[in-house]
Amino acid sequence: MLTYESVDELVKAAESNSETISALVLRDQAESMDRSEHSVYEKMERDFAVMRSAVDEGMKRDLRSMSGLTGGEGYRMGEYSRRGEALCGSLLSGAMTRALAVAGCNASMGRIVAAPTAGSCGILPGCLLSLCDERDVPERAAVMAMFTAGAFGLVMAKKASIAGAQGGCQAECGSAAAMAAAALVELMGGTPAQCADACAIAIASQLGLVCDPVAGLVEIPCIKRNASGVAIAFASADMALAGVAPKIPADECIDAMREVGDLLPSSLKETALGGLAATPTGQKLRKQVFGK
Predict the structure, then answer these.
(1) Residue 269's beta-bridge partner residues?
(2) Which residues are paired to 23 by β-bridges?
(3) Fewer beta carbons within 10 angstroms: which end of the chain, N or C?
């Protein structure tokens, strides 16, 4: 059974069997859980369906968060994307729309899949659902790619952290973007080594990102960081598929993420005491929600 201690372990195990990381992980999970591969796949398929439902919920025009601070971001981005005016084209703007929608669904207490966390829940579905809907990628392939994303997430959780309170937003949106980038590469026919390269590039692109939620709520700037994370995931996947090497291996990037997270002061790790949360407007919004 795989121990998921390193990205290098995942890549070498897949390469030794001449298979994708997702096929390796599905088989490994089925064996470790003493279940059939079909039943494990069906569970992931249900999670994928929850992601799609979260997009639908988050796209509602009148959706509002419990605090009243956010709502409607997915709807507005979707309308803009459908008009064909998006600078980044229909695929990326559609992915950003879906990411905003899922994050908005989370803020309104809707049902989501933490991928790997609630604060970063829109990045993976934003990427995978957009390839299914915009590029006609088969749903089964997207569901399988979630096993790849999950394996990379497990490595990051073990070697570093996926919690904003411990590692900053680099540990949440950064990890989610890295997971999504690896999944995108596999979906587009990339090798296990290219999946690792995409993971490394995505982590490097968000290294040091702080966790500074306004009013201590996973809304501002968290929701918009999900859309940004989608863009980083696609860019990282494209660079890896093009053969642009990250130079620093994925495992070393993860180690660096842990070290940077340890160096961040507590004010920048989900306490709402620094960053955007400490700005005059951030403080005004906090009082708007909680009073003086």
Answers:
(1) 211
(2) none
(3) C
Q: Give 3: exposed, middle or buried? Use CB within 10 Å, 0-12, 13-18, 19+.
A: exposed
Q: What is the pTM of this model?
A: 0.97
DSSP 8-state code for residue 67: S
Residues 54/44, Cβ–Cβ less than 8 Å:
no
Is residue 64 within 8 A of residue 87, CB to CB? The reply is no
pLDDT in tens, 62-114: 999 999 999 999 999 999 999 999 999 999 999 999 999 999 999 999 999 99
Nearest to 58 by CA among 129, 4, 111, 134: 111
Provide the H-helix boundaries in 59-138. Answer: 73-82, 89-107, 123-135
Summarised one tens digit per residue, pLDDT across range 194-212 is: 999 999 999 999 999 999 9
Q: Residue 261's Cα: distance from chain center in Å? A: 18
8 A C-beta contact, residue 115 and residue 151: no
Query: Using only C-alpha atoms, what is the Rg of the chain?
Result: 18
Tell me the two tokens of residue 102. Answer: 């899922």
What are the φ/ψ torsions at residue 29 (nearest 5 degrees)?
Answer: -65, -40
C-alpha span between 25 and 4 (Å, rounded): 10
Cis peptide before 249 (omega within 30 of 0): no
